[in-house]
User: Fold this.
Amino acid sequence: MEKQLFSRLLEGSVIKLGDDIDTDLIYPGRYVPVVDPVEWPKHALEGIDPYFPSRLRPGDILLAGRDFGCGSSRSQAVSCLKLAGIGVIVAASFGRIFFRNAVNQGLPVVECPEAHALFSDGDRLTIDLKAGRIECTDRFVYFRPLPSFLMEILSAGGLVPYTRNRLQEKKEK
Amino acid sequence: MGMTFAEKILAVKSGRTTVLPGDIVRVSPDRLMSVSASNAIPIGCFRQLGVDRVWDPDRIVLILDHETPPHDSAHADAHALVRQFAAEQGISRFFDVGEGICHQLMIEKGLVFPGELIFGKDSHTITYGAVGAFAAAIDATEMGCLWATGETWLKVPDSIKVWISGAFRPGVSGKDLVLNLIGRLRSDGASYMSVEYLGPAVINLPMADRMTVANMAIEMGAKNAVFPADKVTDAYLAQFDRHYMAVRPDPDARYVGEETINLAELSPQVACPHRVDNVLPVSELVGLPIHQVFLGSCTNGRLEDLEIAARILEGHKVAPGVRFLVGPASRKVFLDAMAADHIQSLTRAGAIILPPGCGPCFGYTGNLASGERCVSTSNRNFKGRMGNPDAEIYLASPATAAASAIEGKIADPRSYTP
Assistant:
């Protein structure tokens, strides 16, 4: 599934967010102890607006400003978005732990400072992760693609399948 | 050219003589610290990797601190899963509910030393820079994989220097220092960077203040934050009788930024809703009515913090209509504070003593009602952080918290200190 995701371009509609969206806005702390993953996407971005979870559609692209995902290391801040079907997050910059968390869970992240001003809520975007290009009908912008070892983790579907494959290869050697 | 603390330690850990910011290095941590009921996530990841045993049980620490004690069966089940995993894998450094907050325990139990590289599954892992370690937070997925492999990557960060001089005036402490710094640098001002605290006043900052100041560097986005080991570190760690290799930056190290703070010019600081970098001097907020005060958390739940509050509350009572929650950061802090009579005097003044743990900081206990205002010594005032998006959180020092508890309004602690 994730392999397929990488063999084509990512397409989706923009959900535009502001600057400094912290992990308590993405996934409020009071739900951190919730154990069942099925419940997580029901609270995605709930801290911004209680109706947000019902707005999210599979394939949607989050387009945020500065420092998206700053704050806590909670795993669910990424899981809830992934399980809600978010295809990729584009932001001017990311909180460091969130960025790593997203790659490790196989959710593509694109750092592109120019994108926020260029695209609007509801725009249909096409994103080429390898070429580093975001395109709308009449506009486009380039970004620096992730280094190849992070692309490998993403292509594998996240750090768990990536590590499992590596450990398996080691065993076979 | 000289190297910063971060460059030096990452060079050593990756087996190189030198590294530059931006280099990707492969490293093996000295210790991995993982917390709370959400340990179920890394355990789940680990189970998918096709290995039976963890890489090194002696380097793994498991702590249950966020849900103390659990308030429903789902969390109790998750705790049981962690206990079972610790037993199965022979992880002897497992600290159960009631022992205390992970970051307090790591330092207090002698599980972190200068020159070590630590990863933790909690953003405030950065606290261990207080004892001269390179400590960075990672996510649950990576923690589960690290348990299996004992190895991961790091990008060598740029470093910024915080140059500290002068001496605190009465009523001002490490919390005011770090709030002031965050207000100046903003919430992403140290993003991905190593923050290195240096300067002539550092030697006068006790370990408790160092922990507070390192702890909150994550609120400006830092990857790690460090007080390079010195005499204060050595004196604190002497109780553990262990050798370690102190790592200090070279005098000609290259920093991408420098902030200077003169402690003598510092007044009590408050971070206003809903951002940690929305910082004002307390004088601009004095008189704002409050409903709850929380003294505790990995930021300010230590013996020194409880002592400051107990002294200020001496001969006073908590204002009517204010709930004053006090959470000692660990069982040891609790016992020491009892031995010093702080717990008793705080209780007599009207405080509610909570079990050692994270509790109110992230909205697990002590939640706020809509429209309420809380002064908290914790580290985050994000909207909804204490369980209610319609409540307001003001972050402040233990002294400011105690003075505010007395008055039922935000108060300047300098009126209560000699």
Remarks:
- The interface with chain B takes residues 20, 22, 24-25, 28-30, 32-36, 47, 66-67, 70-76, 78, 93, 95-97, 100-101, 104-105, 147, 149, 158-160, 163-164, 166-168 of chain A (CB under 8 Å).
